[in-house]
Write a structure and sequence with these properties.
Alpha-Beta Plaits; eight-stranded antiparallel β-barrel; four-stranded antiparallel beta sheet; 45% helix
């Protein structure tokens, strides 16, 4: 089975730090959560050696399942959740069987070299094909580390050899050998099945040690043949108890040292120590001193077990940098706002210059240019009116975008960064996959409309907001969109807004007599509504290929879902969807033969019946009487509006044709589109260029059922294409 084939079912990895001495309580609660939540099928737990006390690995239907659904669990200090997917080389059952039956498991987080990605776009595919071995599992990740390599063994030296070999993964070319991995981070865990219960730990040091001996852990830390393993227990504690802690470890046979840094104390394990004694000391110490210490960190080190070829070359990605002048900012914004934005520009530049993590912010590097450009427009057209509010929001968006991208990197994975973030383990792959559509659509449009620079300078971010929204070219997506491309159609409406805002003549009283006439006798809300109507039609044209039924199904089923979370004004959306229907059937690229004529728009009774029929059709789509009797009032109150919109329909249709916003239907059946569609529905990643992403996404949206492996294959395929674009 090809390694680009994705397995069915999500795998989540939770790395958790607890209040010292309470890890057994937390692990018990987590295990109960896994048993009681019906969408969790398998789970396994490890005692982490490092910053994390518990590593929970569990299999779910998709990433929507969270352990917090079980309810609050006491004594958790921090956690990171990594969103992963398996390959079919090992199915879910064999993965968990291996994890459950071995003493030790190592999780190695691999970050592929971004510089190599640009010179060899298929490097990911090559690595995935050659990286696995005996007792290993390779998982893909939606976070900063694209791959997670699991290695399970009863022998700690096998684990160390695995860690050592990971750093030497290379690409052999005819001319040279290039390092394929930018950075690794490894965490070793001990299977919780062999560890003592809370009751045993409460008894005594001897009781804990006897339990571990009976579970095959009476094994030496180092063998006579190989004494290369070193373990230190680093402790952060209340100052008044440091002497007492030192005495405890000395009594257990450890060498003790005072540390300079965030940890106060280090207990170094002697080479003749056995695993049962080491683990007993850690567990008993954390329990006995739980009110006197803040945290422990078990640091494992070993002498290099794998020689790295000195001739291996490194390929670096050019660093992004926004060169700006504070005085130029001050010419556009007031002193306070200029200083505010300069601070964000400096910070973003610092992030972009980071040699380890700078590449994850590259898709944000265009945004300061947009802020300066738009600020000058406010200055020139409105004498600075609204520029302060624009600057304030734009600065916040930079911070929000940078924070969400920083989660789960090697810099932050062991820290409490993003405490209130939905995805502490990161979702960088998904963010860049979502970035592909607006980037390509706006780039194509810029080749058609050359009066202004239309290339997209925004970026994607995510929050708990259930709807897609856009502010100042930044598109905020709902969390589900990170792992489910069937929600990506909502991007089209937000892209429609960006197009309307950037191409001023589209909705302008100055350029459009039809707009001026329509707005003359209406309030300020009418202009906002007109923007929404334009964005709805443009979004429809961008991605639905004239398929009105698919559009209505997706839109209204989503709106019914959103009503659970927030108040939705269904009258507003009924007007929007009816506007799209009138446009599609009468003014679009393929109007119906029985289309409405100009005089029909003066027939309010006819428009009333058509609007009423539209709402009845919607109720059939969602199988619910969502309008009730109000549909008669909605139709009656708004038919005159549609009569007055007739000239605008004509102008909008002309603009859409001139801007070439609707992709041609033949793209749906092109060889490239069909090949990609077939691969994705088989759960295979498409590693080549996606010629027409909108056509590919249409097939995903139009499918009756989209399995987990198809969703993951779509995300990785879109991410791969976006990663290889020169536009960043």
């Amino acid at each position: 089975m090809p390694t680009s084939s994705i397995g069915e079912g999500a795998i989540k990895i939770s790395c958790i730090q607890t209040v010292p001495g309470y890890e057994t309580d937390v692990q018990f609660e987590l295990e109960e959560a896994c048993k009681t939540i019906p969408t969790i099928e398998r789970s396994v737990f490890f005692k982490g050696l490092g910053s994390f006390d518990i590593i929970a690995i569990y299999n779910t239907v998709d990433f929507g399942t969270n352990l917090r659904q079980h309810g609050p669990i006491k004594h958790i200090i921090k956690s990171n959740v990594l969103l992963c997917y398996p390959y079919l080389k090992k199915d879910i059952e064999s993965i968990f069987n291996l994890l459950e039956n071995k003493l030790f498991t190592c999780l190695s987080f691999l970050k592929i070299n971004p510089g190599l990605k640009h010179t060899d776009p298929q490097i990911d595919k090559r690595i995935r094909e050659h990286i696995t071995g005996p007792n290993e599992t390779l998982l893909g990740s939606l976070g900063w580390n694209e791959l997670i390599r699991l290695h399970s063994s009863n022998n700690i030296y096998d684990i160390c050899k695995h860690i050592s070999s990971t750093t030497s993964i290379c690409l052999q070319t005819p001319d040279q050998i290039i390092s394929a991995i930018l950075k690794t981070l490894s965490i070793i865990g001990i299977n919780y099945n062999v560890l003592p219960s809370k009751e045993i730990i409460n008894k005594s040091f001897t009781a804990v040690k006897n339990h571990l001996k009976s579970n095959h852990l009476n094994i030496p830390l180092n063998t006579p043949e190989d004494k290369s393993l070193f373990i230190d227990i680093e402790v952060s504690a209340k100052a008044i108890y440091l002497s007492e802690i030192k005495d405890y470890f000395i009594a257990k046979g450890f060498d003790c040292f005072t540390l300079v840094g965030k940890h106060d104390f280090s207990a170094k394990v002697k080479k003749e120590v056995r695993w049962d004694h080491l683990l007993t000391t850690i567990l008993h110490f954390r329990h006995k001193f739980k009110k006197k210490i803040f945290s422990t960190h078990t640091r494992i080190s070993f002498q290099e077990l794998h020689t790295i070829d000195k001739d291996i070359k490194d390929v670096s990605l050019p660093k992004k940098f926004h060169d700006f002048d504070y005085h130029d900012l001050h010419m556009v914004f007031n002193k306070e706002m200029a200083s505010y934005l300069a601070n964000f520009f400096y910070t973003l530049n610092s992030l972009l210059q980071n040699p380890l993590t700078g590449s994850i912010y590259a898709d944000m590097s265009r945004y300061p240019m947009y802020i300066e450009k738009k600020g000058k427009e406010y200055r020139d057209r409105t004498r600075g009116k609204n520029s302060d509010a624009f600057a304030l929001v734009s600065g916040y968006l930079i911070r929000r975008g940078a924070e969400i991208r920083s989660l789960g990197t090697n810099d932050t994975i062991e820290e409490s960064t993003g405490r209130f973030a939905e995805f502490k383990g990161g979702c960088q792959v998904s963010l860049l996959a979502l970035d592909l559509l607006p980037t390509l659509i706006m780039e194509k449009l810029s080749a058609v409309y050359r009066y202004v620079d239309l290339k997209w300078k925004g970026f994607i971010t995510v929050s708990g907001e259930p709807k897609f929204i856009h502010i100042n070219q930044v598109i905020n997506v709902r969390p589900k969109a990170l792992w489910d491309p069937t929600y990506w159609w909502a991007l089209y409406h937000e892209i429609g807004h960006i197009i309307v805002e950037e191409i001023e003549p589209l909705v302008s009283k100055t350029y459009r007599p039809s707009i001026k006439s329509y707005l003359a006798s209406r309030n300020e809300y009418a202009k906002h509504e007109l923007y929404e109507l334009y964005a709805e039609v443009i979004g429809y044209e961008l991605g639905f290929f004239g398929d009105l039924e698919l559009f209505l199904n997706l839109l209204w089923n989503l709106l019914v879902e959103l009503k659970k979370y927030e108040k939705i004004t269904i009258e507003e959306y009924a007007i929007r969807s009816f506007f799209v229907e009138i446009y599609n059937n009468n003014f679009g690229s393929n109007p119906k033969t029985s289309k409405l004529r100009k005089k029909d728009f003066d027939n309010l009774d006819l428009l009333y019946e058509k609007f009423l029929t539209h709402m009845i059709k919607i109720e059939k789509i969602v199988d619910a009487d969502i309008f009730g009797n109000s549909k008669y009032f909605i139709a009656a109150q708004n038919v005159s509006k549609f009569r007055d919109l007739y000239p605008i329909f004509k102008d909008l249709a002309d603009d859409i044709r001139a801007l070439k916003l609707r992709p041609h239907k033949k793209l749906l059946t092109s060889d490239n589109t069909i090949s990609i569609r077939n691969k994705l529905f088989e759960g295979h990643i498409w590693w080549d260029k996606i010629a027409d992403p909108q056509a590919v996404l249409y097939h995903i949206l139009n499918a009756k059922k989209v399995n987990f492996n198809t969703k993951m294959a779509t995300i990785i395929s879109f991410w791969n294409h976006r990663s290889n674009l020169s536009v960043m």
